[in-house]
Amino acid sequence: MNSALPFPTTTSRLKPQNKTGPFSRLAGKTASKRFSPVFQSARLIKKRHALKSEYEKNTKGMYKHMLGLLNAMPGAIAQGMIWGIMAIGVYITFRILDFADLTVDGSLCTGGAVCAMLVAAGVNVWLAMLVAVIAGMCAGLVTGILHTFMGIPPILAGILTQLMLWSVNLKIMGKANQTVNARSVYVLATPLKRVETIVTLLLFCAVIIAILYWFFGTELGSGIRATGCNQSMSRAQGINTESNKILALVISNGLVALSGALLAQYLGQADINMGRGAIVIGLAAVIIGEAIMSHISRNFAAKLTGVVCGGIVYYIVYQTVIYIGLDTDLLKMLSALVVAIFLAVPYWKKTYFAGNSAKKPVDSGKAGKNGQKEEQAHV
Q1: Taking the chain, what is the end-to-end CA distance rounded to the nearest angstrom?
Q2: How many Å is the Cα radius of gyration of the chain?
Q3: Which of 208, 184, 182 lies closest to 196 in space, CA to CA?
Q4: Helix axes 154-173, 125-148, angle to 10 degrees
């Protein structure tokens, strides 16, 4: 009966079956080849070649990245010096005069707009820059009059002038931007001539620092410094503090406009938004420069040189951030945070860290008893 059944019995199913077909022989040979020493060494060599090629590819990419960063450094140094001139103007109002002037966001664009329009019209670049400086001085004069003659607080006076300059700059250019073609007209600062541009900007910075060092050593410049230190004492000494404020604002915004004129030539255009956030960049350059020069020299010329160096360091960091691949939209926020932290450090030192070094007040009762004992001992 069992032999007639179509299904195999239990014993027949449990018997091992010998598979001796051609595919089983090929599988055995492949398995033995896979675990052979020759095959393993070939696999290792192949992996090493793949890792080596990947390493060489990454190394070439890194070298190419570094070369691109080094090629961008001259441009970063040039722009840093241009913004360093603007930071010197911020230093005059912020540190010397103790005046929070926000006019710089508008006067920078004013200088660039005036210079771009005149250069595009065929005017000599030196004359165009002179007119740009005068325009910036007029902006500072407006802020000074708003503050001194009309009694408007410094910050609000700067904001009002900045808003007025927005309309003025649009009227000057007639549109949102104006191009300056360095190939068709002569300009002093251009990326096409990096070495000449850097040398020219170095001469500009040196001359500006020398003139300011001389001016603030005169009687008029000392009066401006005294006005920034203590207005009440300056008035008591017969110094006209109101005129000193106006003069300092005029000088400051003239330098800012000069920076805007050079920036418009270097970028090849003047844009209505080119001055947005300039006050933050200026303050960052001032703070970085003070951190650099505070351990070297406290000379006034050294401080001004440090401000220019602060602008250069700021733009080198900016260029490095771009090449690293970080989000450049966050750079202004980071700059504002750095400025806020550095401005808060003196307050933190006085408030939170002065208690350990300050002397403890002496109790009056104990002081009286000690005095009596000393008198009795003396008798």
Answers
A1: 141
A2: 36
A3: 182
A4: 150
User: Which run of H or E residues covers position 210?
Assistant: helix 194-215
The encoded tokens of residue 223 equal: 């009066």
Share above pLDDT 70 across residues of the chain, in percent, rounded to a whole number = 75
pLDDT-derived band at 280 (thresholds 50, 70, 90) equals confident
Cβ contact 253:97 at 8 Å: no
In a 10 Å sphere around its CB, with 0-12 CB exposed, 13-18 middle and 19+ buried, how is residue 133 labelled? buried
Burial classification of residue 376, based on how many CB atoms lie within 10 Å of its CB (0-12 exposed, 13-18 middle, 19 or more buried): exposed
Which sign, positive or negative, has the C-alpha torsion 101, 225, 257, 293? negative
b or e along 184-210 (b: 16 or more beta carbons within 10 Å of the residue's beta carbon)? ebebbbbeeeeeebbebbeebbeebbe
Give the range with max mean pLDDT: 26-40, 163-177, 284-298. 163-177
Which among 193, 236, 232 has a CA at the least distance from the CA of 75? Answer: 193
**CA 355 to CA 357: how far, in whole Å?**
6
CA 107, CA 275: separation in Å to the nearest integer?
Answer: 8
Distance CA 97, CA 108 (A): 20
The whole-number average pLDDT for the span 331-335 is 78
Going by C-alpha positions, the residue among 243, 225, 236 that lies closest to residue 147 is: 243
Instruction: Tell me if 147 sits within 8 A of 133, measured CB to CB.
Output: no
pLDDT tens-digit series, residues 283-308: 889 988 888 887 788 889 999 999 99
* pLDDT for res 284: 87
What SS3 string covers 99-131? CCCCCHHHHHHHHHHHHHHHHHCCCCHHHHHHH
Strand ranges inside 101-243, DSSP E: 177-179
